[in-house]
């Protein structure tokens, strides 16, 4: 019997079960385990085993011979005390991997295939390498629209689902690609102040310098359990939380952890990710924002229309009332790029300050107005006026403050990074374009979103005149290495194009 003593190894392996065996362990030497093998770990008593990827160690301070070390996540899943006797066996490859191999070969998969893959991933039967193979296969060989529907359904079915018992539960989502586009944190309090239910569950940033959850975390707690989320949304008519802890379409969060380092965000996976989360959160009415621009995620009107039709196809077949807005994605929205800077922009708009970013304010009112028109009591074309009145009267600010208090105000909000570098204009003229991708890259190199005070603060936008030597933007960073990476990126390409005065 391959019995070992369980040891808690305090390593966060980010959504992957990892086990640790010492190279001199008898079990390792006799059973033919190898590094990166998958093993099943069984409790001494009856119970379902967990599956983990094996790492081999030579340091007894991590795991000694006769012990089995488990990372944080795997140890929690075992649910037993350190020192408990466990046994290990070779794990059988999940049968659904056969479907992944067929997808790699370019075949079309059916709903049962996607459901089996989803169940196995959520049950930790896939390694990150196997998940990456699945994601790359879907992205590179393509997914038919029916396959996107199948993946979306399977993501919903492998998680929990919120029920609100109301005929109209609103939500809003942007497909991303535009730095500083923090409209959700303005739309939600405006819509909630009107009295509509808008429980907003957001993801962390994938390839951007900040997601809504990253930015809201500057102000309040975003990791709430399902019951707390439900209670806050009931009392405030809204919440702004991270969806990961609520187990709403948990497959999405697992796949995002793999997509992030690969910078993968294909149309099919994006559609399934967004719609599975919204439907799991109980949304009945959804507004999708697709920014279009030469350096946005969606670069042409033709691509935007294809994506719009894909959203509408999947949403319609899942019973979701869905509308899509194509918006201006030619430059960043607002001035701040990075959680702390974006929070500043949002609060300036909510406080109706004259120096608040006008583009962020206007876009948020347009989006909020469209959502308010989901309300059968609001006539078409009146939503914008109602949204503007809610903002200018201070009702949106009061609602946001109530949401922050309900979720738990951040007692120690992060500050701007103490390292600063101003990027100056190399010539006089007019800002003719700003590269969204490069600005996002610079902000991420500076440390965003992991370091919430890192990022980029824009001083000039498209159409603004600028003199030679005048600041275009300021970089903020917390750590010298990140600061240096960001400055080196600027020296290669500063992201701004300065045209001649007209």
Outline the structure in words.
The chain is α/β, with parallel strands linked by helices. It folds into four domains: about 5-90, Barwin-like endoglucanases, CATH 2.40.40; about 95-140, no CATH class; about 170-245 and about 280-405, Nucleoside phosphorylase/phosphoribosyltransferase catalytic domain (Pyrimidine Nucleoside Phosphorylase, Chain A, domain 2, 3-Layer(aba) Sandwich); about 420-500, Pyrimidine nucleoside phosphorylase-like, C-terminal domain (Aldehyde Oxidoreductase, domain 3), CATH 3.90.1170.30. It has 18 helices and 18 strands. The protein has a six-stranded mixed barrel. A four-stranded antiparallel sheet has the order 12-15-17-13. The longest helix has 17 residues, at about 300-315. The termini are far apart. The relative contact order is 0.10. The mean pLDDT is about 95.
Task: Please give a handful of descriptors for the protein shown.
502 residues, alpha/beta, Barwin-like endoglucanases, Pyrimidine Nucleoside Phosphorylase, Chain A, domain 2, 4 domains, 6-stranded mixed beta barrel, 4-stranded antiparallel beta sheet, 41% helix, 19% strand, globular
Strand-helix topology:
Elements lengths: L2 E6 L9 E5 L3 H6 L6 E6 L6 E8 L9 E4 L1 H7 L6 E6 L6 H8 L6 H12 L5 H14 L3 H13 L12 E5 L9 H11 L3 E5 L9 H5 L9 H11 L1 E5 L7 H13 L4 H14 L4 E8 L8 H17 L3 E8 L7 E2 L1 H12 L7 H15 L10 H10 L2 H13 L11 E6 L4 E6 L1 H10 L9 E4 L6 E2 L4 E7 L2 H13 L3 E4 L3
Parallel strand pairs: 1-5, 2-4, 7-10, 8-9, 10-11
Antiparallel strand pairs: 1-6, 2-5, 3-4, 3-6, 12-15, 13-17, 14-16, 14-18, 15-17
């Amino acid at each position: 019997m391959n019995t070992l003593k369980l040891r808690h190894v305090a390593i966060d392996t980010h959504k992957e079960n990892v086990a640790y065996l010492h190279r001199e362990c008898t079990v390792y030497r006799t059973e033919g385990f190898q590094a990166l093998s998958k093993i099943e770990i069984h409790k001494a008593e009856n119970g379902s085993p967990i599956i983990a990827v094996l790492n081999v160690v030579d340091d007894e301070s991590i795991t000694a011979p006769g012990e089995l070390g488990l990372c944080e996540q795997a140890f929690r899943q075992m649910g037993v005390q350190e020192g408990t006797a466990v046994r290990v066996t070779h794990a059988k490859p999940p049968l659904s991997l056969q479907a992944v191999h067929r997808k790699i070969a370019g075949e079309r998969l059916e709903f049962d295939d996607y459901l089996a893959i989803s169940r196995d991933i959520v049950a930790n039967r896939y390694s990150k390498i196997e998940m990456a193979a699945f994601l790359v296969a879907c992205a590179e060989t393509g997914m038919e629209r029916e396959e996107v529907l199948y993946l979306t359904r399977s993501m919903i079915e492998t998680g929990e689902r919120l029920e609100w018992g109301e005929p109209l539960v609103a939500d809003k989502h942007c497909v991303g690609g535009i730095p500083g586009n923090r409209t959700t944190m303005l739309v939600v309090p405006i819509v909630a102040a009107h009295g509509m239910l808008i429980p907003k569950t957001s993801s962390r940033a994938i390839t951007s310098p900040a997601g809504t959850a990253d930015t809201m975390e500057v102000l309040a707690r975003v990791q709430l359990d399902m019951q707390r989320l439900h209670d806050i949304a009931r009392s405030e008519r809204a919440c702004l939380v991270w969806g990961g802890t609520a187990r709403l379409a948990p497959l999405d969060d697992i796949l995002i952890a793999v997509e992030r380092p690969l910078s993968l965000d294909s149309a099919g996976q994006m559609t399934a990710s967004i719609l599975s989360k919204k439907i799991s959160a109980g949304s009945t009415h959804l507004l999708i924002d697709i920014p279009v621009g030469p350096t946005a995620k969606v670069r042409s009107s033709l691509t935007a229309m294809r994506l719009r039709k894909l959203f509408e196809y999947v949403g319609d077949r899942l019973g979701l009332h869905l509308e899509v807005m194509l918006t201006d994605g030619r430059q960043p929205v607002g001035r701040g790029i990075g959680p702390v800077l974006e929070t500043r922009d949002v609060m300036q708009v909510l406080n109706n300050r004259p120096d608040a970013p006008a583009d962020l304010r206007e876009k948020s009112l347009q989006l909020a107005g469209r959502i308010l028109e989901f309300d059968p009591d609001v006539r078409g074309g009146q939503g914008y006026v109602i949204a503007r009145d809610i903002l200018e009267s201070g009702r949106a600010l009061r609602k946001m403050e109530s949401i922050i208090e309900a979720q738990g105000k951040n007692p120690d909000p992060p500050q701007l990074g103490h390292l600063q570098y101003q990027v100056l204009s190399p010539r006089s003229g007019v800002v003719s374009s700003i590269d969204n991708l490069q600005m996002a890259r610079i902000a991420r190199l500076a440390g965003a979103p992991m370091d919430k005070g890192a990022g980029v603060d824009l001083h000039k936008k498209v159409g603004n005149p600028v003199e030679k030597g005048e600041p275009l933007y300021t970089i903020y960073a917390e750590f010298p290495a990140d600061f240096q990476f960001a400055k080196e990126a600027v020296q290669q390409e500063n992201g701004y194009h300065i045209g001649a005065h007209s």
